[in-house]
Amino acid sequence: MATTTRRTTSNASAAAATPLVGRLARWRLQALLIGCVAMTVIIAVRLVDLQVLRSQELASKARLEIETPMLLAPRRGQITDANGTVLAMDVERQSLFAIPPQVPAERKAEIALLIAGLTGAPAEPILSALRSDRQWVRLARWLEPEVAAKVAELELPGLRLVYEPMRFYPQGMSAAQVVGALNLNGEGISGIEAYYDQLLRGTEGRVEGEFDPARNPIATSLSRTLPPQDGANLQLTIDPFIQQVAERELKQAVDEQNADGGTIIVLDPRTGAILAMASWPFFDPNRWQEYPPEVYGRNPAIGTVYEPGSTFKMFTASAALSSGAVTTTTTVDDPGWVVRYGRTLRNFDGAPRGPLTLAGMLYYSSNVAALQFNELTGPEAFYRTLTRFGFGQPTGVDLAGEESGIVNFYGGAGYNPLTFLINAYGQAISVTPLQLVQAAAAIANDGVMMQPYVVQRICRGNDCVQTQPQVAGKPIEPEVARAVREMLVEAANHYAPVIWGPRTGNWRDQWLVPGYRVGAKTGTASIPLPGGGYDPTYTIGSVLGIAPVDEPRFVVLVKIDRPKKDTLGVLTAIPVYYNVVDQLLRYAHVPPDRSLVSPGQP
Q1: Checking CA distances to 497, which of 346, 382, 529, 570 falls within 20 to 30 Å?
Q2: Per residue in 53-77, pLDDT tens?
């Protein structure tokens, strides 16, 4: 009985366990079913979102992955001088790009170090670029040929060498302020490069089609190519010989005087063409980043204003004659100093000159005579003539960064009668060097002032447009211009002993440039201080002149900033003016007149 009882118990237990197992299995099935239903709902919602609600958006993104057009860079136009010598051009250099998804993750740090070692660039930005989720990224631009060759030899995965145009300036520093430079984005930042940026840049082309991640066209897809339009080529008015003379003479003067800087401009008064424009310090546009912004980004010949000093007296004389209140025989008395409006105004040396005509005022560079002639002229007539000469407004030259100058015109907020008087000898008035040259060119050109320009021809392929000289105004009558030119001849000869005295022992007036009648006016310009007043130590020495006077071919400005040995600047600027003009007249084959040679001169 005992045995039977145990069997019964065992069977009962087994029977009781069977329904429990079934219940557990059904629970699991129900949970699984619920999970499947939930997943189905989620997938269905997601599918509706992707396939219906966002279908167009996602399709567009997908197309962009393979259909983004590849841009084709145009070749930037060349810049040449008047003789066709290339001053700026594009050359092909290889740049290094990466396709980050194709670079193995375990090698990205190694590859970043390799590229950094070859290019000299920091490794961190390169590694960051390799780890980005972009499909195409530039690692280094414009590699030197030997560096590009080493990169190619490594055959690194996901890296590509692609040719890109790079701006190159074959003449280096020559005419750099005129030509200008490009930034790393290929945008002009100064000079011709900035002023004519859009014209030089051209128009991008594009390849439209389907591309793989390496930006290679997919052969089985249809594609369309719109070729780029290269930029226009520009030929300048800059004469390479005259530019070389200007740069050489300027550098020598700055070096000898330990000067802060300087400018030389040579302009053809008949057309307004700028034949040379040089300013120190020079810079190399191939390495513009190595220079301060004020050097590579500004052309002092048009972008820096200064008080012109006594060179301005030729315009004071022009205004006086134009007013009708003064003639070539009108005299004023120069006692050496006068008092006006509570201020003592004096000559540079305080010495009296006695009765002076306009010619005498220019010959002795008399401040006192100049202000008295201004009193006879009157402020209305004086400033009317200055306006006609273009002072206080840009010349409109085709160069970037031109300043307007500062003139306190009669009736304006800054005008006062004392300013009017000292304007007569070039103080309390600011001009750019080019403004001064353009105005002097009007005197040289019988009163007709031409628009200055530096681009003489624009070519797109074989289609060229020649710049036509433009008249900018007629500030004075021809007879006034001729009278002032004659006065400038005497003023030039008065300073000839600076050149010829040590050579001939003759310290009297003589021909400044033997064989030629040239006109010139010197100037010792005071330098305003930021807090008011003038620099008590240093000045700006300059000479502004016309050569030859009878049939003018050149207007020349020589400006030397803060010469340290010759603090008045005149003894520095006159020899530079002579050296430049003498070479220009020989270069232009202007025949000399043997009667215009003083004893002892060659």
Answers
A1: 346
A2: 676 765 665 555 555 555 667 889 9
221 near 424, Cβ under 8 Å?
no
In sequence order, what DSSP letters do the residues of 477-501 get, joined into one string?
-HHHHHHHHHHHHHHHHHTTHHHHH
163, containing H or E segment: strand 159-168
C-alpha torsion angle, residues 62, 64, 65, 67 (rounded to 10): 110
pLDDT digits (tens, 9 = 90+) for 141-162: 888 899 999 889 888 888 988 8
For 12, residues 6+ apart whose C-beta sits below 8 A from its C-beta are: none
Is pLDDT at 45 greater than 50 in this prediction?
yes
Place 9 in a pLDDT band, splitting at 50, 70 and 90.
Answer: very low
For residue 521, give the nearest of 550, 559, 553 by alpha carbon: 559
| Least reliable range by pLDDT among 52-56, 128-132, 313-317, 553-557 | 52-56
Instruction: Specify whether the CB–CB gap between 268 and 112 falls below 8 A.
Output: no
Q: Which residues contact 462 (CB under 8 A, 6 or more apart)?
A: none
Count CA atoms closer than 13 A to 237's CA, side-chain side: 23
Within 10 Å of residue 125's Cβ, how many Cβ atoms?
12
User: Which one, of 331, 370, 377, 371, lies nearest residue 354 by Cα?
Assistant: 331
Report the distance separating Cα 344 and Cα 33, nearest Å. Answer: 109
Dist. CA 248–CA 257, nearest whole Å: 14
For residue 36, which phi and psi values (nearest 5 degrees)? -65, -40
Q: Bigger pLDDT: 529 or 285?
A: 285
Least confident of 11-15, 454-458, 474-478, 489-493: 11-15
Close Cβ partners of 61 (under 8 Å, ≥ 6 residues apart): none
Q: Which residues contact 238 (CB under 8 A, 6 or more apart)?
A: 81, 82, 87, 175, 178, 274, 275, 276, 277, 454
Please check whether residue 266 is in contact with residue 280, taking contact to mean a CB–CB distance below 8 angstroms.
no
What backbone phi and psi angles, to 5 degrees, belong to 144?
Answer: -60, 145
Distance, CA of 464 to CA of 579 (rounded, Å)? 36
**Is pLDDT of 340 > 90?**
yes
Cα–Cα nearest to 202, from 84, 73, 69, 71:
73
pLDDT of residue 74: 84
Q: Is 522 within 8 Å of 366 (Cβ atoms)?
A: no
Helix axes 570-587, 497-504, angle to 10 degrees: 90
Q: What is the 3-state secondary structure (H, E, C) of 64-117?
A: HHHHCCEEECCCCCCEECCCCCEEEEEEEEEEEEECHHHCCHHHHHHHHHHHHH
Query: Are 328 and 360 in contact, with CB atoms under 8 Å apart?
Result: no
Residue 85 has pLDDT above 80, yes or no: yes
- Contact (Cβ atoms closer than 8 angstroms) between residue 305 and residue 421: no
